[in-house]
Design brief:
Blueprint (H helix, E strand, L loop, with lengths): L1 E6 L5 H18 L3 E7 L12 H15 L3 E4 L5 H10 L5 E3 L7 H7 L3 E3 L3 H20 L3 H4 L5 H9 L1
Parallel strand pairs: 1-2, 2-3, 4-5
Helix pairs in contact: 1-2, 2-3
Amino acid sequence: MKYLNIEDADLPPENLVARIKAIRASLKREGLDIFINARTDVYLRGLAPEGQRAAECIRRAGLYEEAGADGIFPAGMTDMGDIAAMVKGTRLPVNIMARPTLAPAAELEKLGVRRITAGSAISEAMYAHAARLAGGFLKDGLSAPVTAESMPYPQVNGLMKA
């Protein structure tokens, strides 16, 4: 199955509702079956006061489901109580984003979370690692630290085959 992630950003939820409806209608016309994962940025952008964010995500999940979304992605939600409420408050499968304080996958699965997304975490970690390596190289000129964990190009290209 193919997936489409679409987010509400800091726009009113009605904006994403309209986009989901338009996407769903277009997919139907074209005979395509694509999973629409509706991401809400309530937590990432602080779109509701703390203590009300889970309820706002649940409210938006209802709107997005009615519009034709297949899943809900409350990006930035990490509190186990909020996650449990989210899972209970929607029929949509819940997708959670990897964050420093997020519980292990096994615990999230017990709550009913269906998908965990790395999001930008892996690339952000790689940028931090690259910055440390470059800083060290510029400071002392040593090649060993820069080359110690390198991956030969054939291996890098092999990653792209799948």
